[in-house]
Specification:
heterodimer; A: seven-stranded mixed β-sheet; six-stranded mixed β-sheet; 23% helix; B: mainly beta; four-stranded mixed β-sheet; three-stranded mixed β-sheet
């Protein structure tokens, strides 16, 4: 099966999914997917909020994540790996319930065919206990990994309930970047936006400007994040930031309403605003092709 | 001593009743508007406050349970609020309007609902 056919299948699976290609400062929809020897793709899922219960927001709160897992497993061309960009679980004050939710989440995603899965925490997972339970289940809060010439950096801007990365992690980041050439291909995975998207909606990282300042020293940096429960694209200098949809509820566009609130479930358009994405990395060109998908077939 | 009327929204039963209760705050000899705000999961009390433009305001912030934050972007104010301490924030409201303040320290399941409004009116 050729790559174009694969793409068509993805769009069919994704229903109203829209392909978005990102290259430098230009963002455009449409186009074809050209797989090259130096390219690969991975899947990003985000904000699954396992444990959330709100029938008017998502009456299928127990089924949405499972449908997403099935949708990923149904992809003809399986990704090299899968990332979850935080808020795996819905927060709770009860440490036992928190761990129960994490265990349930882990069991569900263990059904993914692709076994290389990278996790990171959201504030719902890690802010109330500074990541203690999260680390028991999913490992380090910040780390790096490399894949086919791309250096991935997972940044933690949630285990501090004040939404900061912190000086210690910043020093770790500086030390990591120091080992790389300035033209290295770098993807930063994090939960909150690193720039001030909407600080009064908690859509910012307190010391995000310092992180961006460090990242700007490198020429090819892309940031993928979650938290805002919608697709969003933004540039800070030459760094592109792309937010992913949630798999539990959608949120309004930043600043579009006086007060941020979950968008109620629409029975005529179930799962609208929810979905996951494919990210295709063209390593030689340092380009990332993002394809938005919903969990419904059809 | 002048009295300043502020509004207090109380929670009753299992839901938020939007009834408005009058409360008072006093002004000091220095002609400051002193307002006490208590934070607890997941609300500020009071969460609707009226102050007068041009008159210095002192907010006395306390937490009843855990670490919270107080952020009032319109006047570039923020402070941590922790149990057992009173945090005082001073500012002079120099513009009229309704301005949202919120908790900016993640405090739990209702954190995103934890906000209030300061209304600045003419003297």
């Amino acid at each position: 099966m050729n790559d174009l056919m694969n793409r068509r299948d993805l769009l069919k699976l994704g229903g109203m999914g829209v392909a978005v290609f990102v290259s430098g400062t230009k963002v455009r929809a449409g186009g074809t997917r050209q797989k090259m020897n130096d390219s690969f793709y991975f899947v990003q899922l985000s904000d699954t909020h396992w444990g959330f219960n709100g029938p008017t927001i998502n009456p299928d709160s127990q089924g949405t994540l499972k449908k997403a897992v099935a949708a990923v497993n149904a992809l003809d061309d399986q990704p090299d790996f899968i990332v979850f960009t935080g808020d795996l679980t819905q927060t709770t004050d009860d440490p036992k319930i928190r761990r129960d939710r994490m265990a349930e989440f882990r069991d569900i995603v263990s059904q993914l065919k692709v076994k290389t899965v990278r996790f990171m925490a959201g504030e719902h997972d890690a802010s109330l206990d500074r990541g203690e339970a999260y680390q028991e289940f999913f490992g380090d809060l910040h780390y790096t990994f490399d894949h086919k010439g791309v250096h991935f950096i997972v940044l933690d801007n949630v285990s501090d309930p004040m939404a900061a990365v912190g000086e210690k992690q910043l020093q770790w980041l500086r030390a990591d970047l120091k080992q790389l050439n300035t033209d290295a291909r770098i993807v930063v995975l994090t939960h909150r936006p690193l720039f001030d998207l909407a600080p009064d909606w908690d859509w910012a990282t307190r010391d995000g400007a310092a992180v961006i300042e460090v990242l700007l020293q490198h020429q090819n940096v892309t940031v993928l994040y979650g938290h805002i429960h919608q697709e969003h694209h933004h540039m800070t200098g030459h760094i592109a930031h792309h937010a992913a949809k949630s798999l539990m509820w959608a949120l309004p566009e930043p600043g579009s309403v006086p007060k941020k609130a979950q968008i109620p479930w629409n029975a005529t358009e179930p799962y609208k605003g929810l979905g996951f994405r494919n990210v295709e990395a063209r390593v030689r060109q340092a380009r990332y092709e993002i394809e938005e998908l919903s969990i419904l077939k059809g | 001593m002048k009295q300043l009327v502020i509004f207090l929204i109380v929670a009753t039963g299992g839901y938020q009743q939007q009834s408005v209760v009058r409360s008072t705050a006093h002004e000091t000899r220095n002609n400051e508007q002193v307002i006490r705000i208590s934070a607890s999961t997941f609300e500020f009390n009071p969460r609707e406050i009226t102050v007068r433009k041009g008159v210095p305001v002192v907010l006395e912030l306390t937490s009843q349970d855990r670490h919270h934050g107080f952020k009032l972007s319109a006047f570039e104010l923020r402070v941590d609020i922790k149990p057992g301490a009173v945090e005082k924030v001073r500012f002079v409201p120099d513009k009229i309007g309704n301005f949202i303040f919120l908790c900016d320290v993640f405090c739990g399941d209702g954190h995103e609902e934890m906000s209030g409004t300061i209304k600045v009116v003419e003297q």
